[in-house]
Design brief:
Length: 117
């Protein structure tokens, strides 16, 4: 069973930065890596995606502030979050989608990010 373990969350003041990491227990070169976030009472929201071929994209609300990256040699994906805002407060989840098997994906257990004003 593939496991994803997120780390790097915490409490930060508005304007601060955090770097989330997602270690995956398999070769991530064949996975599309993504970050999502969820707040109480809301649906889980897509934040950013790192494609296996090197491209990346993100939701408009974080463009220019968040950067997704990956290190295939370390089987780890990252989310660098700068200029954090209170509305970024959420549980952040890492996701891995298989390139070759439709519908096969894995989730981490999440890491809490809290931004104080």
């Amino acid at each position: 069973q593939v496991q994803l373990v997120e780390s790097g969350g915490g409490l930060v003041q508005a304007g601060g930065s955090l770097r989330l990491s997602c270690f995956v227990s398999t070769n991530i070169a064949v996975y599309i890596m993504g970050w999502y976030r969820e707040t109480p009472g809301k649906q889980r929201e897509w934040v950013a995606t790192s494609n296996a071929g090197g491209g990346a994209n993100s939701v408009d609300s974080v463009k220019g502030r968040f950067t997704i990256s990956r290190d295939n040699a370390k089987n780890t994906a990252y989310l660098q979050m700068n200029n954090l805002k209170p509305e970024d407060t959420a549980v952040y989840y890492c996701n891995a989608k298989s390139l070759f098997t439709s519908g096969l994906e894995y989730w981490g257990r999440g890491t809490q990010v809290t931004v104080s004003s």
